[in-house]
Here is the input.
Amino acid sequence: MNLRDATHSDRDTLVDLVLRCDATYRDWAGAELRLPARAEELAHWHRRFADPVQRIRVAEIDGAIAGVIAWTQARQAHGMGPAIGGRAHVSAMFVDPDHWRKGVAATLMGEAVAAMAQAGFGSAQLWTPAGAPARRFYEAGGWTVVDGAGLHM
Here is the structure.
């Protein structure tokens, strides 16, 4: 596994990755779950790459992107308000379903947690839907639920 910074040229691949992951949500949340359209997800990545504080790292296996993590300064009002001092926000954490349970997420998260601490953040937050299987991964890694969708470390 190779970790590297994501580049603008990765955007379409990252969108495809997220859409594959999002499709698995229907396995536990039901067919009626509204999933983001491709254009919506592309806009999310455009904003991430435009954020000067955002750090985006990808994990590659055999030269292909198998996972991604992105983090930035935490902000109030769903990321649009004032900064929350000392807190980072994990804005994306996705691993290709073909690479689940192979250590990709743990490797990406471990590196990100260390980088957030090195950048001076004393805590971090992320959001994941209630009932998401990923919650077990986050909680095993020391994250705690603080409200319906939020986890903090």
User: Anything to note?
Assistant: The radius of gyration is 15 Å. The beta strands are 2-5, 55-61, 64-75, 83-95, 123-127, 144-145, 150-152. The longest helix spans residues 104-118. The chain is about 35% helix and 30% strand.
